[in-house]
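Suppose a colleague, Dr. K., hands you the sequence of a protein chain of 237 amino acids and asks what its three-dimensional shape might be. Before reaching for any lab equipment, you can write down a predicted structure in token form. Begin with the sequence itself:
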Amino acid sequence: MPPLPAPLADDVARPAPGAGKRERTRAQLLAAAIQVISARGVAAATVQEIAAVTGMTTSTVYNHFATKDEVVQQVAMWLSLTLCERITVSQQGVKEGAERMAIGVRRYIWLAEQSPAWALLMLEVAAAVPQLVEFVQKFALQDIRIGVKQKSFRIESEMAALNMSAGATTQAMMVVARGLAPPGHASAVAATVLRGLGMPFEEAAAVAHRPLPALDRVDAAPAAPPVARRRATAASV
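The predicted structure, expressed as tokens, is then:
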């Protein structure tokens, strides 16, 4: 698998400031797993290699993760949450709900353009962990509500709006990751999502083609979704 895009690789599994020893060790193991998976691919990566990269024993890895599959799942969850946090930081100062929504859609598709294998892995894990999808969709819901309040969006229901935007984005990610999309697909999809939320045709196109803000570094580690927090709590008992 190719390495992660530089803006995300800069944040590889950093623990939160003031994190305890167990959380720091877990972050080291996730960072090592990303390194091994990047070099060897998911199928060829082994727990032994992950342990070797950190200078730890395999028993230490298994003290934090029950199986290799769980390691891979947690890596994909970290990637999704880190991207979500990066997008949120990049949206600071963007007041328009429609532009915020377009930024989110385009950035997830950007991941598929930059790192197809990582994007597909993230989508695979998201399909198996509904709690992760629910967590990520909270960010999109905030933007939808801003757009409705600003009268840019007219929607039948919030759930329907989330289903439409998430479905279009994930499908676009798969198409892009497989090399089947035409140039400019991310902006085209974002414009289509905005139209689905009730924006006029030309206005949606204009918003969807605005320059993307930079993915600035996140100072704190991304918040864990509910499922990850529960596992971490259980593991620390």
